[in-house]
Specification:
By secondary structure, this protein is of the alpha/beta class. Helix content is about 30%, strand content about 20%. The N and C termini lie far apart (about 75 Å).
Length: about 350
């Protein structure tokens, strides 16, 4: 938008050749005599072209800056540091998954992912030895051709300590649908597992294996502060990730309420509980739908999670002191509960 010069009040100041403009001037409007007014202000503007006679032309390493009310030009030593909030790791992982997919590695994880028609496959990288062990039928049915790689320079962005066995497959995360569809207590055992802030992918992978063995309908975790679907999780799950639904929900307490509405009884595993798991299961009717809720090692269940549970139970120990990690506790609990719901 052009402005008439006579509609603008410009006043030249002797110190530094600064320019004072009318606050109604639109940003970026070029005025008479080559003056640019970049902001609505009566203070000296950031850039004055052809007016400042005391200041030589800026050096090549300098650049014009947005008006800050201080200097018109700033060099490399006057760069302002911006406080940019660091993204949480789960946000970075999710953005990377959308942009690049995720890499599964290990012979078992890759073989089961290739055999899963629901899995979107992007790239398969194999060493000659891994290709011989998998066999051509493994990737021919999946509609993807492998890239044969040198084992000394494996061209896949994996952690240095990852035991890939010469096999890696880039895929998209699985979509298991909604909570009600996956956990509806219809035919089969009505048994689910909920994880409260369990972030170790090895623990979650082991829990997925146990959930598949004992017939759980799904493993449920919050979208934040939980283990995402990664190659390490898939390798620990040893193929169970392709068959066992792993749902990540926005709010764990709301998911628990949804399960309660479907008829599930929510049992929270707490080492300080008074009631044992066997006693609680013995009081339930045969075939009751059961949801086992387990917390992270150390912190355990959060207070709101405890309050949402129907009962808090513990696994009894033979001696005064004893402990199980969360994956072992899940396996023991799933075995005990599966006998009640079967």
């Amino acid at each position: 938008m052009q402005h008439r010069a006579d509609a603008i009040t410009l006043q030249r100041c002797e110190r530094g050749g600064a320019v004072v403009g009318d606050p109604g001037i639109e940003p970026g409007v070029r005025l008479r005599e080559g003056v640019t007014v970049p902001c609505h202000t009566l203070r000296p503007v950031a850039h004055c072209e052809g007016v400042d006679k005391r200041r030589p032309h800026p050096r090549q390493d300098e650049k014009p800056c947005a008006f800050s009310g201080r200097a018109a030009w700033r060099g490399p030593t006057r760069e302002r540091q911006r406080n940019v909030a660091k993204k949480p790791s789960w946000v970075i992982d999710k953005e990377r998954e959308k942009r690049e997919g995720l890499w599964l590695f290990g012979l078992h994880a890759v073989r089961d992912a290739l055999a899963n028609p629901a899995r979107v496959k992007l790239r398969l990288v194999l060493t000659r030895n891994a290709a011989d062990r998998l066999g051509e039928d493994a990737w021919a049915g999946a509609g993807i051709e492998p890239e044969i790689a040198d084992p000394r320079r494996f061209p896949v962005p994996l952690d240095p300590g990852s035991v890939h066995q010469g096999a890696a497959l880039e895929v998209r995360p699985l979509d298991w649908g909604g909570l009600e569809d996956a956990c509806y207590p219809g035919a089969g055992a009505a048994l689910t597992v909920l994880l409260d802030r369990v972030t170790d992918p090895h623990n979650v992978g082991a829990i997925l294996r146990s959930a598949e063995v004992f017939g759980a309908k799904a493993v449920i975790a919050p979208a934040r502060h939980s283990a995402p679907e990664t190659g390490a999780l898939a390798k620990t799950a040893s193929g169970a990730l392709e068959r066992q639904p792993y749902l990540r929900v926005k709010n764990l307490a709301n998911a628990m309420e949804t399960l309660r509405g479907l008829g599930y009884i929510l049992l929270g595993l707490d080492g300080e509980a008074e009631e044992t798991l066997d006693h609680a299961l013995g009081e339930m009717p045969e075939g009751a739908a059961i949801a086992l809720v387990l917390g992270a090692e150390g912190p355990g269940l959060r207070e709101r999670t405890k309050e949402t549970c129907d009962r808090l139970v513990k696994i009894p120990f033979a001696r005064d002191f004893g402990s199980l990690n969360v994956s072992n506790a899940a396996a023991v609990s799933l075995y005990a509960a599966s006998r009640n719901v079967s």
